[in-house]
Automatic annotation (TrEMBL):
The lineage of its organism: Eukaryota, Fungi, Dikarya, Ascomycota, Pezizomycotina. Residues 124-148 are annotated as: Disordered. It comes from Teratosphaeria nubilosa. This is Protein kinase domain-containing protein.
Length: 148
């Protein structure tokens, strides 16, 4: 894409819904229902297994609920697209660019999606200078993910 500061490579992805963290806020005590939590965990573990089979490692210390998003409903995305020209999102206009506020997407029954691969690594080599975990950074527990 050509912009005022030169050419920029852009990655374009399908629209996604709210984060797991935002979804959790909709539940009493921020605790997901057991079946919903199980569904999120199954999809997340399956996604990580698939990327590992492809030779990729996410590399995050632990997956944050902010990096797992609910898949967006295509019908809702189409409605937002159609409504945007007549009802644009709030924006901040700067001298060299305009920053648009993202629309909040409603919940859907679409599968969750693991995001934030900015630090992901490809390859099969190991790093011998990495020490095994001392247990202090094993990531969030199931209780932390469910908010209880």
């Amino acid at each position: 894409v050509k912009g005022p500061h030169g050419l920029h490579q852009c990655l374009v992805f399908p629209a996604l819904g709210m984060t797991l963290a935002n979804l959790r806020d909709l539940f009493e005590d921020r605790a997901l229902e057991k079946t919903l939590l199980q569904r999120f965990l199954l999809f997340t573990v399956t996604a990580l297994d698939l990327i590992h089979q492809a030779g990729m490692v996410h590399t995050a210390q632990y997956l944050s609920p902010n990096n797992i998003l609910v898949g967006a409903n295509d019908i809702v995305v189409t409605k937002v697209e159609q409504a945007t020209p007549n009802n644009p999102s709030p924006r901040k206009v700067l001298a060299d660019r305009t920053i648009h506020l993202s629309y909040a997407m409603p919940t859907s029954h679409n599968p969750p999606v693991v995001t934030d691969f900015g630090a992901a690594r490809m390859g099969t080599s190991t790093m011998s200078n990495i020490s095994p975990s001392n247990g202090l950074s094993d990531g969030p527990s199931t209780q932390e993910l469910s908010g209880s």
